[in-house]
Amino acid sequence: MCGICGWLDYERDLGAPDARRELAAMTETMSCRGPDQEGTWVDGPVALGHRRLAVIDVPGGRQPMTLPVGDEQSMTMVYSGETYNFRELRERLAAAGHRFETSSDTEVVLHAHQEWGGRDPRHAVRELNGMFAYALWDTRTRELVLVRDRLGVKPLYYYPTPHGVLFGSEPKAILANAAARRVVDLAGLRRALSWVADPGNSVFQGMREVPPGYVVRINRDGIRELRYWALEDTGHTDDVPTTVRTVRDLLEDTARRQLISDVPLCTLLSGGLDSSALTALAARHVDGKVRSFAVDFVGYDENFTADDVRGTPDGPYVKDVAQFVGTDHADITLSTDQMMDPAVRAAVLHSRDLPITAGDMDSSLYLLFKAIRERSTVALSGESADEVFGGYRDFHDADTVAADTFPWLAGRMMNRAAAGPSLFDERLTKELDLPGYLDAQYRHALTEVPQLTGPAAADPHERRMREVCYLYLTRFLPNLLDRKDRMSMAVGLEVRVPFCDHRLVEYVFGTPWAHKTFDGREKSLLRAATADLLPESVVQRVKSPYPSTQDAGYEQALRRQAASALENPDSKVAPLLDATTVRERLSETVDGRSSMADRMQWEQVLTLENWLTDYQVDVRL
Length: 621
Known about the structure:
Elements: E1 2-9, H1 17-28, E2 37-43, E3 46-52, E4 65-70, E5 73-83, H2 86-95, H3 105-117, H4 122-125, E6 130-138, E7 143-148, E8 157-161, E9 164-168, H5 171-175, E10 183-184, H6 186-192, E11 208-209, E12 214-219, E13 222-227, H7 240-258, E14 265-268, H8 273-283, E15 291-297, H9 300-303, H10 315-326, E16 328-334, H11 336-340, H12 342-352, H13 360-373, E17 378-380, H14 385-389, H15 398-402, H16 407-410, H17 416-419, H18 426-432, H19 434-448, H20 460-489, E18 494-496, H21 502-509, H22 513-516, H23 524-530, H24 536-539, H25 552-567, H26 579-586, H27 596-614, E19 618-619
Parallel strand pairs: 10-19, 14-15, 14-17, 15-16, 17-18
Antiparallel strand pairs: 1-3, 1-9, 2-3, 4-5, 5-6, 6-7, 7-12, 8-9, 8-11, 12-13
């Protein structure tokens, strides 16, 4: 796993000293993503930067990597991520006459573009199975190509300039170049305040996020975004037993592929079906015991109170799985003081680059990954299984499914922060018009949903559940993947997400909803496919999301910090707020029973204040 950045300007020689200094500054911002090695490469109008986290072929995978393709012609790449089928591709390419100098997957991707890229790089990208974001400069065409994986596991941004483009794994790499402006407008602020992924919207004005499943081609004729992958209707005809067997086969193959590593590897274990199944699958394909880690909070199990979202604490189930599977397990126990540490909150914001926050769930994830990084370099996560297999309660609530909006905004996952910024100034609230923005986003997303074919097309419920599954995979999941990537790469930990294997996603997405709930429960296919690997307690456990602290002291600390920030005469966020409402809310008694929605509003205020201040953002509304 790595961090990449670069610069293309057809009217400049980027080998000049001032340009090289800017490239160095851009590359340095990616040091957290790649603590092991640094590399830059400049050739006339193009400059590429790379920071490496060495995982595969530690001595031979240095980047930028160049492949000669003829007399004085070459392709040069900076690559982030993993191509899990690189060994199979290497065999195919070797049979076609290609010769390799290293054992790295990066070199295989370069050869794949030489063999199959031709006039359209999408042909090569479709051969790859993995999570990746990379940039490829071809001297033959004088064209730069930016590529992002199908589900958007790895991030990639670009910023058009008058004569080219800036790009980077994170906005901070682009913002390190003087040509980029730190401006946010209404469109960006809407994205920042809405828990709905808006493909392409980077929050910063003028900057774009490469959408999942796209390549971006940049040449003298301009910039074009081209799609190479999308969810489609597969016309699923397998019966339930066949579907369960196929899911198991895909999971076994995916786990085997994603365990490839030349450095220590572990799993993230929550005691839920997803992470437990993944841990059990991993244990079948490793020599010795698989390492597993879980997050916990001081006094959490002893003082746990069930609510509408979390019915049980994770601890007892984690222990059941660790004992049943036989993992080398460790709990990482966190306190409120750790999560409220200003240095931790600053590190979380710096890793995000954006005022998008999950509050203590960001801080705890960052601290969990930081602790894991002391003992492992790669971790496997159960992220995305809920979106793929239909695990959230909202999938199974009739009123939520029927609501004419994004399900997570209508159902149990709904929170006041997502519904609208009630702490914000009335004029700003009106200009933002978040309800109108979210409705427009929802309507547009529905136009993308592939239509059902066959007998299922006549079933209104099947059609609606196809829409719900698509919305979760394309507008909800990207937020979770981005959060996990940023928190992990902030400490140099590579987190892999096997449930995002595109073969599994395609197969299960095409499966009828009746198959996905054949036993009358959530995640029927995953449960049936892995039940033999797990203790009965976990097989029967009801979905419980990533834990959030229930310590009343956490919200009290949040409010104190918010009040302190707003008392500052130089506060950046205060002019955006309704002072009367804020004072009234701050005077409320905190008794530990307030909703997560209430807490998230204070998280949003603090995050915005720190972002506007630390990033020196120019707000233009």
